[in-house]
């Protein structure tokens, strides 16, 4: 509980998922910390393990399909991994809030928006339903939903996608958690709405000293809001850096490939280079470096798993690559 | 809400009109002269003519059709060919018994089927799941008249908990309830079977929905996730299946009333069939059509209660 403890700390988290009776490592020894007012982004293609990392932190891995195989998770220096589901219920929505990708399906269609925002307050704060719904109106104001008092009894289908995502943010932050996990919070929204939602999260982060873990595949979003970035591939963190360093000196071949595949206004679409091949399924993951099957720089030693090593003097820019890892330029 | 009800009632009018028309012409197509059926083949031509005159059978079909619609609009279902009593009066005197039976089996079906379906879905392959499978199998595979006889043998003859003849002799509430129990259970088990199946499959898919994950991410206790967040959504298909099966339920109540010697619409229909009482049959068909239309309107109203998206649509 000391002031120095990060709001969220993940230490060598390994998560396994089961496919056809075999357990595979889908998140491999991932470590990072998120401090108050800081935004850390997890970036990667679908299936790289970024969402599973989030679900592991929340204790929401699907029963019988996913399990935490190792590592530790701590909130404010207090270990929370290994707790029972009943114990995690007291933490979820109370000390960590989570916003999901699909605002269209993530809200319950038959419960009023006000009740859905009020619910965490009823369970975690012991508020009466009436008091909690009064607080819900304030929270709707906070996330800038217009005429909140009239709309507190409305249902999700009466809201647009952007408004629903604001409702999601309001319910995630109802109990004033110190950590917010946002899993692709803007992916399903129109571009103009995306900017509004990101600005809203950034504003709330400042006023409430939130630590934000942002999960996205959109490097444009990363560039505009993140402080630190972890690039994930096949369950491994392949590069970890401050956001400025990552864009200035993308080092891992996968990071370079991701940046080259990103459409940008300042270059023609002919220059966009898609990454060849596909992410292998977990059963087909190569031993050693998991990116080797798609890597242009592949060498023999890539059959051994490289470790995450620092490439700058401060030790904050780390890369998991034999070829690029040692090279300091 | 009132506007919603008014709209649904207006929509029911063309349906009802279509059914009335169909019933009228079906009865006319059936071969045989009703006058001959009533008076027998020894009757004199003058007597037959007099009866046709009284029943309006000598008028052109379209005039008969208009008369028929007018009298139904006035609540007149005609007179029985065998007893010459008004069908409406006979029907109304036993209607409470049938309504009582239908409602009781509906309540049994919902109170038994919904919890069983939920528990079966939450603990797949658990005890509740096995029980749900067995009950569904029994409810769906036994015809109402077979299960009725079995219930009678077991609970009215072997162990004498309930009367064999389910016609209550007095207005005493307990007596009525005892008479109602076996027939209601007989129909209720069928309803439980349907409700359990739809609740179980609905719960299984609802528990995989994103909103359930959101509820868990908020820290909502597992029990409230199941019984509030998921079940509230499953009520929508449950209402659908109950609404659709109300017709089946009414049909099965006819058989059940016969097996348990219970007064009701079923008794009237079987008597009318045995005596080839076309007038009564025609009247009863109208009553059943009306009952099913009313059941559908009620179903739509309940939709408006369980699904907030329906009201504005």
Write a structural description.
The complex is a heterodimer of chains A (about 325) and B (about 325). Chain A has helices spanning about 50-60, 85-90, 105, 115-125, 130-140, 150, 160-170, 190-210, 220-225, 245-250, 255-260, 320-325, and strands spanning about 10-20, 20-35, 40-45, 65-75, 80, 95-100, 180-185, 210-215, 230-235, 235-240, 310, 320. By secondary structure, chain A is an alpha/beta fold. By secondary structure, chain B is mainly α. The interface of A and B includes residues 111, 112, 155, 171 and 172 of A.
- Residue-averaged pLDDT of chain B, rounded? 86
- Major sheet details of chain B: none
Classification by helices and strands of chain B = mainly alpha
Tell me the Rg of chain B in angstroms.
24 Å
| H/E series of chain B | HHHHHHHHHHHHH
How many DSSP E strands of chain A? 12
Distance between the termini of chain B: 12 Å
Query: What oligomeric state do the depicted chains represent?
Result: heterodimer
The percent of residues in helical segments of chain B reads: over 70%
Mean pLDDT of chain A: 90
Beta-strand content estimate of chain A: 15-25%
Spell out the key features of this protein.
heterodimer; A: 329 residues; alpha/beta; eight-stranded mixed sheet; four-stranded antiparallel sheet; 22% strand; B: 313 residues; mainly alpha; MetI-like fold; 13 helices; globular
What would you say about this model in short?
The complex is a heterodimer of chains A (329) and B (313). Chain A has 329 residues and is of the alpha/beta class. Chain A has helices spanning 50-58, 85-89, 103-106, 113-125, 129-142, 148-151, 161-172, 191-208, 219-225, 243-248, 253-260, 322-325, and strands at 8-19, 22-34, 39-43, 66-75, 78-79, 96-99, 179-183, 211-216, 228-233, 236-242, 309-310, 318-319.
């Amino acid at each position: 509980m000391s002031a120095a403890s990060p709001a969220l700390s993940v230490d060598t988290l390994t998560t396994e998922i089961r496919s056809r009776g075999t357990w595979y490592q889908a998140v491999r020894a991932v470590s990072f910390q998120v401090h108050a007012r800081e935004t850390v982004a997890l970036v990667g293609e679908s299936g790289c393990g970024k969402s599973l990392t989030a679900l592991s932190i929340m204790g929401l891995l699907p029963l019988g399909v996913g399990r935490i195989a190792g590592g530790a998770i701590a909130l404010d220096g207090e270990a929370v991994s290994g707790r029972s589901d009943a114990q995690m219920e007291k933490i979820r929505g109370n000390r960590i809030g989570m916003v999901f990708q699909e605002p269209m399906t993530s809200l319950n269609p038959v419960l009023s928006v006000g009740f859905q925002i009020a619910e965490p307050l009823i369970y975690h704060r012991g508020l009466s339903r009436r008091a909690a719904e009064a607080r819900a109106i304030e929270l709707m104001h906070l996330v800038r939903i217009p005429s909140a008092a009239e709309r507190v009894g409305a249902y999700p289908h009466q809201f647009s996608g952007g408004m629903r995502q604001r409702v999601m943010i309001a319910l995630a932050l109802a109990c004033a958690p110190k950590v917010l996990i946002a899993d692709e919070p803007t992916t399903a929204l129109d571009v103009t709405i995306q900017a509004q939602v990101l600005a809203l999260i950034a504003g709330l982060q400042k006023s409430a000293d939130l630590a934000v873990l942002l999960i996205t595949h959109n490097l444009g979003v990363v560039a505009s809001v993140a402080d630190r970035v972890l690039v994930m591939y096949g369950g491994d963190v392949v590069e970890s850096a401050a956001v400025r360093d990552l864009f200035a000196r993308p080092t891992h071949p996968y990071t370079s490939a991701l940046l080259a595949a990103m459409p940008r206004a300042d270059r023609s679409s002919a220059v966009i280079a898609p990454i060849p091949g596909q992410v292998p399924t977990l059963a087909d993951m190569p031993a050693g470096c998991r990116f080797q099957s798609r890597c242009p720089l592949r060498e023999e030693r890539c059959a051994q798993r490289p470790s995450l090593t620092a490439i700058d003097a401060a030790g904050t820019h780390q890369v998991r690559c034999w070829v690029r890892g040692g090279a300091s330029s | 809400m009132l506007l919603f009800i008014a709209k649904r009632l207006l929509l029911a009018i063309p349906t009802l009109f279509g059914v009335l028309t169909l019933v009228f012409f079906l009865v006319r197509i059936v071969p045989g002269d009703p006058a001959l059926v009533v008076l027998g083949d020894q009757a004199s031509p003058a007597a037959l003519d007099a009866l046709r005159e009284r029943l309006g059978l000598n008028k052109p079909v379209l005039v008969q059709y208009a008369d028929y619609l007018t009298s139904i609009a006035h609540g007149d279902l005609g007179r029985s060919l065998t007893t010459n009593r008004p069908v409406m009066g006979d029907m109304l005197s036993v209607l409470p018994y049938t309504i009582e039976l239908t409602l009781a089996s509906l309540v049994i079906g919902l109170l038994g089927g919904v919890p069983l379906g939920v528990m079966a879905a939450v603990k797949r392959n658990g005890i509740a799941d096995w029980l749900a499978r067995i009950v569904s199998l029994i409810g769906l595979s036994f015809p109402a008249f077979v299960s009725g006889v079995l219930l009678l043998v077991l609970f009215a003859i072997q162990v004498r908990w309930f009367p064999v003849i389910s016609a209550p002799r007095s207005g005493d509430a307990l007596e009525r309830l005892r008479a109602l129990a076996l027939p209601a259970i007989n129909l209720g088990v069928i309803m439980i079977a349907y409700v359990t199946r739809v609740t179980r499959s609905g719960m299984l898919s609802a528990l995989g929905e994103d909103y359930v994950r959101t509820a868990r991410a908020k820290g909502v206790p597992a029990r409230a996730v199941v019984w509030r967040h998921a079940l509230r959504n499953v009520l929508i298909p449950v209402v659908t299946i109950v609404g659709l099966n109300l017709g089946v339920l009414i049909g099965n109540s006819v058989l059940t009333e016969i097996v348990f010697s219970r007064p009701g619409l079923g008794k009237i229909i079987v008597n009318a069939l045995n005596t080839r009482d076309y007038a009564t049959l025609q009247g009863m068909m109208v009553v059943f059509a009306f009952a099913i239309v009313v059941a559908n309107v009620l179903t739509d109203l309940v939709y408006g209660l369980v699904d907030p998206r329906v009201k504005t649509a």
